[in-house]
Specification:
Blueprint: E1 3-7, H1 14-22, E2 27-31, H2 34-43, E3 48-52, H3 60-70, E4 75-79, H4 84-92, E5 97-100, H5 105-120, E6 130-133, E7 136-139, E8 144-147, E9 150-151, H6 156-167, H7 175-183, H8 191-205, E10 211-214, E11 218-221
Parallel strand pairs: 1-2, 1-3, 3-4, 4-5
Antiparallel strand pairs: 6-7, 7-8, 8-9, 10-11
Amino acid sequence: MPRILLIDDDEHLAAPLATYLARFGLVLDSALRPGQGLAMLRATAYDAAILDVMLPEMDGFALCREIRRESDIPVVMLTARGDVMDRVVGLELGADDYLPKPFEPRELVARLQTILRRQRVAPGAARQPRRVFQDLVIDLEAREVLRQGQPVDLTGTEFELLALLAAEPGKVFSRDDILNRLRGHEADLYTRAVDIVVSRLRKKLEPLDCIKTLRNAGYTLAVGKAAAP
């Protein structure tokens, strides 16, 4: 059963949420403080983490940054006001999704199920588990990326975006297409999120310049196939 870690200083939230998530086959552990949560993440192989933005010791943004230094575990941020800037900052730091407080537990379950499903199945994996281009190799089964022979550490969302673009090189994917296909369900579209993830991915793939922007259209992977041996 997937194990999720909630880091939130609301001591009344974890118990009822754990009971609810158990109905969907999810195990929820909890920590009230970031230091405790980081220790638990280092000691246990969690499948995803849920971080509140407003925390003692350090806020959720600083905590997300700390987690990203050590792990590519999927991260869902809880933002008290649902403020757009909170979402932007969280995504820029490497969060995979966001959910405004107060939230419906069923929506949280849906978000968790989506990111867990993306961790298990990459787009195009059934057709071709390994995509090989010039200076870029994407292993969909091992979920590994090599740039000029060097491994690249990507978050789950970054990997899924690259795998989606690599499934059909040269095809232009609109922002709405990307959001719907990666989340796996219709959602309130937040196109700025796609731009942020693309920006993060581009930086990690440097010096390769393979993700192109077509104004008012979307994004495409422009990279040559590797020559046959």
